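Contributing new records

If you add data, match the layout below exactly. Sequence lines come first and carry their own label; structure lines follow with theirs. Keep one chain per record. Anything else will be rejected by the validation script.
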Amino acid sequence: MGKLLVLTLLGAGLALIGERLVAIRQRTNATREVRSVEPRSCHLIEGLENGSEDIDILPSGLAFISSELKYPGMPSFAPDEPGQIFLMDLNEQNPRAQALNISGDFDKASFNPHGISTFIDEDQTVYLYVVNHPHMKSTVEKFKFEEQQHSLVHLKTIKHELLKSLNDIVVLGPEQFYATRDHYFTNFFLVLLEMILDLRWSHVVFYSPREVKVVAKGFSFANGITVSLDKKFIYTADTTAQNIHVLKKHENWDLTPVKVIHLGTLVDNLMVDPDTGDIWAGCHPNGMKLLAYNPEDPPGSEVLRIQNVLSEKPKISTEYANNGSVLQGSTVASVKHRKLLIGTIFHKALYCLL
């Protein structure tokens, strides 16, 4: 009887492991190959060789780019180099990326920038908020942008017990923002277990100096986050569920679900076209190739555009796709007046004219 029980439990355990492995392969599109879709004019951006994970473009056409992210489980081509913030001026005929100097009381050696978001105050001062992972922890860094000095001045570090495992951020006030927590756990092995079991404990946090709270939950992997042009809706990517969640924003900063848009690809960061309100999404067509990186068969890149977001049937179109021969592991697509920047976790960045 005892042996039978042991065999039964062993069989059940193996069956569960097998089912979970199959589920992971499905959630990561492990067998998917991408077909090439190339805009008419694209070229790699000189100087961005080790990642361009997030990009935020100001109304003036200046683009901030976070670079050299070290993220658990992902490759890094410069593991010993600190992260940087680059700037590009899209008004130039041939814009180039230049690293910004960082001043103030800030540990630049441990800088590990992830998601970024800008805020312009009433006096037109530009502030850059950066999700940072010093020593694999999570903080939010607030910088003041000094355009003439081509620099960032560090103003403060924001920490809170709810601001852990942060991924992306969208700033909507002088010190009010939403941020995504892509995993509940912070221990790498517990994170793996969380992903294998698909616990859906990932969530969205609201922060202000007076109040910090969870405002949306139930995500498999809450990732990119942005806001609609009218500031009434928050868009959040759920990477391994391959969805975009549309959430209504309330005066007390709470969020309520409106709809879910399924993309069929692992969606990362989200940006809104300032001219049309369309969502541009940087995506991973095959997530398994990210998890098991092979330079001979690298992860591809994909950019989707979602039009008529609030309609019954939003229009989803592929604006860029590559099998990894040009661009590996795309995370973000940011557009300004038909100029498109595509960033990656650890690889290069692309500049396209649409």
